[in-house]
């Protein structure tokens, strides 16, 4: 089994758009939950001042991330007027195609950086739903 990919992105919320961002987050999370059964975790967070949004996702493999980017691409555009992407950090071994798509996403949402962090040591106990016994 491939190692999971841990995805974290951070964005600044545009002034006065917090309510719209929260609505868009709920809509996107519901869509992803209904259409991406392999995704292990998908959570949005907003900091206490309501100025920064963070998304945390755990994909079982690079194919899951690529599927997410393909399926969700049109829906990500809804955030373009609401946020300015600051950064995408990906922990694991994504495919070159996934990294290229992430760079396109970051550019579309404000030009944030994309950084890939290679695993060096550790372990995980996360399992895709179809592998839980």
Helix and strand succession?
EHEEHEHE
Detail the poorly predicted runs. none
| Rg (C-alpha, Å) | 15 Å
Strand residue percentage: 25-35%
Estimate nothing, just give the exact number of structural domains. 1
Oligomeric state of shown chains: single chain
Please give the number of β-strands. Answer: 5
How confident is the prediction overall: mean pLDDT?
A: 92
Largest sheet: 5 strands, mixed
* General shape: globular
CATH architecture: 2-Layer Sandwich
Q: Count every helix, treating DSSP H or I runs of 4 or more residues as helices.
A: 3
Structural class: alpha+beta
Strand order of the largest sheet: 2-3-1-4-5
State the name of the first-level CATH class.
Alpha Beta
In which range does the helix fraction lie? 25-40%
Query: What's the N-to-C terminus distance?
Result: 15 Å
Strand and helix map with partners:
Layout: E1 5-13, H1 18-35, E2 41-46, E3 52-59, H2 62-76, E4 83-91, H3 96-108, E5 113-117
Parallel strand pairs: 4-5
Antiparallel strand pairs: 1-3, 1-4, 2-3
Helix pairs in contact: 2-3
Question: Care to give the gist of this entry?
Answer:
This protein has 133 residues and is an alpha+beta fold. The protein is built from three helices and five strands, in the order βαββαβαβ.
């Amino acid at each position: 089994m491939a190692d999971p990919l841990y995805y974290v992105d951070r964005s600044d919320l545009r002034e006065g758009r917090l309510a719209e961002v929260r609505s868009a987050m709920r809509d996107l999370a519901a869509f992803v939950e209904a259409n991406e059964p392999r995704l292990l975790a998908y959570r949005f967070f907003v900091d206490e001042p309501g100025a920064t949004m963070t998304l945390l996702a755990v994909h079982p493999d690079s194919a899951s991330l690529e599927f997410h980017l393909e399926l969700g691409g049109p829906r990500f555009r809804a955030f373009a007027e609401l946020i300015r992407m600051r950064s995408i950090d990906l922990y694991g071994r994504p495919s070159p195609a996934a990294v290229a798509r992430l760079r396109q996403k970051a550019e579309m949402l404000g030009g944030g950086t994309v950084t890939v962090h290679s695993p060096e040591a550790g372990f995980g106990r996360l399992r895709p739903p179809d592998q839980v016994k």
